[in-house]
Amino acid sequence: MTASLEGRRILVTGAARGIGRASALRFAEAGAMVGCLDMDGAALDELCAGPQGNRLHRLVGDVTSSEILAGAMDELAQRFGGLDGVVNSAGVDLEKPLTDVSDADWDRVLRVNLTGPMIVCRAALPLLKAAGRATIVNVSSGAGLQPLKFRTAYSASKAGLQMFSKALAMETAEFGVRVNAVCPGAVETDLFRSGLGEPEDAEGRRVVIRQRYALGRIAAADEIAAAIFWLTSWESSYVTGSVLAVDGGRTFH
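Structure (tokenized):
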């Protein structure tokens, strides 16, 4: 790894598992102090007990709560002295025909996947503006570029997150805050595995899914974290408002 994040202070949401966890660990290994926000306190305890634990700060909370996020920013300001970056990785999936999608289903997906990142960014912006040369990376999805069947709410939420990122990039550029989005394809995470159905059906689903991708495989979480790392580091200093497909060639965006 050539880039260093020594001295950087970064908040990662959804940090207990998957892409968020891989990103938090990669940042810590590169010298950053990382605020790790997730609703799963036990998983955060396990994460922070690892080799990079001295650089990881546990924050238990829900990204959809403005009150919790305000408290988290106060805590990070006191502990880290400020904030230089945000990664919005918390998210939920939903695979249902639209006729089976309840109002509560729709509201939950959009609230976690789209409103949640807005609440996080809104709470973090005063600290990010004060820091200068700060970054925001929002984890969208290839489903926001090329939709997937039976994922109306999920695809809509992720497409909305891309436009949110672009609009915010315009708004924050004068403060030196860069905002970008990454769009993963299928990634080997707990969230992905939970959508495979019963164990006896899982391998068949994997075969079908792999066939959608030019590279013919499912990504590791660390491969997505590498793209997030680049957009957070100074090596991407002239990149803002971009939507980066990291999807093994499913969308060819």
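The chain has eight helices and seven strands. The mean pLDDT is 94.
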